[in-house]
Design brief:
Number of domains: 1
Distance between the termini: 13 Å
CATH superfamily: Lipid/polyisoprenoid-binding, YceI-like
Largest sheet: 12 strands, antiparallel
Number of strands: 15
Helix content: under 10%
Number of helices: 1
Order of helices and strands: EEEEEEEEHEEEEEEE
Oligomer: single chain
CATH class: Mainly Beta
CATH architecture: Beta Barrel
CATH topology: Lipocalin
Length: 174
């Protein structure tokens, strides 16, 4: 069974600003720093565990592109503190866990369906994994509200994060 972690695979999370003061806020690119992903040799089963306290801010994004240098170290620290304490509540919900129920070939990729447990709630998850160059990649949208997560909000809701986040997971195609 091939095993992957953050040294061979990548899990990115993208958040999107919202609210009246969104012009002064930033979309964010986050990275999960510790996770395991196991894929059965015959690709019939996938199981993954993500350590939520390892989510870190990579950079701000502007117009759909990385905007390195926009956030100070202090800004990144404040965002991480809010994520851990108020949004993900990592002391109560240390990890997210995915187990596939079905994996079927689909062209040069796969369709994967299963269940994701996040923030104490389990929900069905369906995604397509496609081959891009030398990697298998899946992109999916998760609604934080579906998992009982209250998206970040400040200044009486005039500055907030949209409930839908985009998750991108990639592993070597070998």
């Amino acid at each position: 069974m091939p095993n992957y972690d953050a040294s061979t695979a990548e899990c990115l999370v993208y958040t999107f600003k919202d609210g009246l003061l969104s012009k002064v806020a930033h979309d964010l690119k986050l990275k999960v720093g510790r996770f395991t992903l196991e894929v059965a040799e015959d690709h019939a089963k996938v199981e993954a565990t993500f350590q939520l306290s390892s989510v870190e801010v990579v950079c701000a994004r502007k117009d759909g592109r990385d905007a390195h240098g926009t956030l100070s170290g202090s800004d990144k620290g404040k965002i991480a503190k809010n994520m851990e304490g108020d949004v993900l509540e990592t002391k109560r919900h240390a990890e997210a866990h995915f187990v596939s129920k079905e994996v079927t070939p689909d062209g040069d990729g796969f369709r994967v369906s299963g269940e994701l447990t996040l923030h104490g709630r389990t929900r069905p998850l369906n995604t397509r994994v496609e081959k891009r160059g030398g990697r298998y990649v899946t992109e999916l949208s998760l609604n934080q509200l579906d998992f009982g997560i209250k998206p970040f909000s400040a200044m009486m809701g005039t500055l907030k994060v949209k409930p839908a986040v985009r998750v991108e997971l990639s592993v070597p195609a070998s």
